[in-house]
Amino acid sequence: MTFADEAKKAVTPRAALPVIGVLALQLLFIASYIGVLHAPKATA
User: Between residues 24 and 38, which one has the greater pLDDT?
Assistant: First the structure.
């Protein structure tokens, strides 16, 4: 049995969905910080 076969058997959609959701949330946080801080300017 290959590693890919074992991984497919071990990872269920019910377990993978929260992991994918957390990764998507982290990517949104990263994108928001990049969007806000891509060209900072001094306000004073």
Answer: 24
pLDDT tens digit sequence for 4-13 = 899 888 889 8
Instruction: With 0.85 as the threshold, say if the pTM is over it.
Output: no
CA dihedral 7, 12, 15, 16 (to 10 degrees): 70
19-41 burial, b at 16+ Cβ within 10 Å, e below that, comes to: eeeeeeeeeeeeeeeeeeeeeee
Alpha helices in 1-44 (DSSP H): 3-10, 13-37
